[in-house]
Amino acid sequence: MELPQFKYSPNAYKLNLFEKEEGICSVCNEERKLRYVSSFYSEEELDYICPWCIANGKAATDFDGEFNDYCGIEGVSPDPEDGSSAIPKELLLEITNKTPSYTSWQQEVWLTHCNEPCAFIDYADTKTIAPLMEELQDDIENNGYDPEFIKSHLSKDGSLVGYLFQCLNCGQHRLHVDCD
Asked: pTM score, two decimals?
């Protein structure tokens, strides 16, 4: 069976958001071989979520949960009904209900560009961002951390981690930085 693809997390399977583990999905009750291992915010704790139940939104719907916090999407109001976001609500719900979350130190932040959520591409270190410096300059200078410290200490799995996003419309790269 072909694995579902995630528009806003195209590398989800390469980023260790799923682990090879046989089991019964807590949502669809099917025997599966890939278990989701990142964030799912719900009152009920699920033992096993398969990629299919993320992609079709069944896990979020059936368990009133989110893979990514609605308010963690850049530029979104805490009130989903106020209509102030330039991003269509269905795209925001795609991030919260149908997109695997990336692993982070603090709660995830989902960056946007061109009035749409960006795709999470990879964890980023100084080597990753070096050829993208011009594109990422604004994010590096305006995130609350010293820009020079970011340029010299950013890592994929240390105490100062970079999260690389890319706009699906224009290709612009974006960077979120988080530390423990």
From this structure: 0.92
